[in-house]
Design goal:
By secondary structure, the chain is of the alpha/beta class. It has 15 helices and 13 strands. Strand 4, helix 3 and strand 5 form a beta-alpha-beta unit.
Length: about 375
């Protein structure tokens, strides 16, 4: 069996890491995964031993120059569909797996070649986009995936046909890669020195591309409140600065200055060593205001880092509040600060009990092996 997995964004991130990890496991079961990505930038994601096709002009909706991009998209649409059809036929693709409803061009090619479509509905569609794209999703998809029970009800509960073909498949973690035992005290010390973090400082961090949905402004505001109570602490914002929204980056720099945190917040930029970064954290914070099933929450849990996360998307299905982490309301910097401070003040044995329970929960419910088995079952039901 061959699967064409389509991801709109070519910039490496959580969806790529998850999809590739699952693909490696499915290969052992005789399922070969090829990838198709868009090409927003010159970055080319090309994991070793994996076939990846990159195609420009398949993104219909963009924040920068939206009208110009839409016109360009329409002009290139026939060629884009033709190219994807050719990939499907020449590579002997059996199933087209699409990540994101706004990534609808592959669905047109799959429909024309009569391939079943597994479509991950992880977008936050509103207004005209929802009215335009959900009927397409309903009509073209063979199976629709969402990453949480709550998301299934929110996104498909008002559409019986869409709801009937929707199944839940959570995100997952490669436990071997995110293993706290792999990081020695010396490795942690070296990374702290690299980032300019003194030995006596606690470290609180967040991970994700720096965009408005990640709630970085709330993280900064929470950092100020934490700093007022616990003076010896540094804050990491780990993620790529997006050139699609330069104004937001400037807003964050201004907010950092206004809160007097220029020496306390470290913007690391994009890093591939996320597990190593998490190994030096005393608390991980997800301040997002919009998410589906954030992979970084599971990664932090796997690394036995105390997690504070906003109650969005499937977060409350990943974390058992008070037992494997802390869930707080979104848009509330004070709640983030209070929960993070509670972990800094917590006795070591109590904190260790929570983080061990978190690791066990990931091993039991959200390992890549488990989710790969579920995904394999979904594929095989199509034949």
């Amino acid at each position: 069996m061959k699967v064409l997995y389509c991801i709109l964004d070519n910039r490496f991130g959580g969806p790529h890491r998850r999809a590739h990890g699952i693909a490696l496991r499915l290969r052992k079961q005789g399922i070969e995964t090829l990838f198709l990505t868009g090409r927003k930038t010159d970055d080319v994601w090309q994991p070793p031993g994996t076939t990846v096709f990159h195609l420009k002009h398949i993104q219909c909706f963009q924040r920068r120059w939206p009208l110009w991009n839409l016109l360009r998209f329409i002009v290139w649409l026939p060629w884009s569909v033709y190219k994807i059809r050719r990939v499907i036929r020449s590579q002997g693709i059996d199933i087209v797996h699409i990540d994101g409803v706004t990534n609808f061009v592959p669905s047109l090619a799959a429909r024309l070649t009569r391939r079943p479509i597994v479509w991950l509905y992880n977008d936050h569609l509103v207004g005209p986009l929802k009215r335009l794209l959900r009927p397409l999703l309903t009509a073209f998809s063979t199976v629709v995936l969402v990453q949480g029970e709550k998301l299934k009800e929110i996104r498909t509960g008002d559409n019986p046909k869409l709801h009937a073909k929707t199944t839940v498949l959570h995100s997952c973690v490669e436990l071997g890669r995110f293993n706290p035992a792999e990081y020695s005290g010396r490795q942690k010390e070296q990374l702290r020195r690299e980032l300019g973090i003194p030995d006596d400082c606690a470290v609180i961090g967040t991970v994700g591309n720096v965009n408005r949905f990640k709630g970085c402004a709330y993280f900064i505001q929470a950092a100020r409140e934490i700093k007022e109570v616990h003076g010896s602490v540094k804050f990491l914002i780990v993620g790529r600065q997006l050139d699609t929204d330069p104004g937001y980056w400037e807003q964050l720099q201004q907010l950092t200055r206004e809160n007097g945190l220029e020496d306390d917040i470290i913007y690391t930029g994009f890093r591939e060593d996320i597990a190593a970064v998490m190994a030096i954290l005393d608390v991980f914070v997800l301040a997002s205001i919009l998410e589906s099933c954030p992979l970084v929450v599971l990664e932090a849990m796997a690394m036995r880092v105390p997690v504070v996360a906003t109650d969005i998307g499937a977060v409350s299905e990943l974390i058992i509040d008070g037992q494997t982490g802390t869930v707080v309301p979104a848009h509330d910097a004070s709640a983030l600060a209070e929960a993070a401070l509670a972990y800094l003040k917590m006795p070591v044995t109590e904190r260790a009990g929570i983080t061990q329970a978190a690791r066990q929960r990931v091993e039991t419910e959200f390992s890549a092996d488990r989710i790969a088995q579920q995904q394999e079952h979904i594929y095989k039901t199509l034949f």
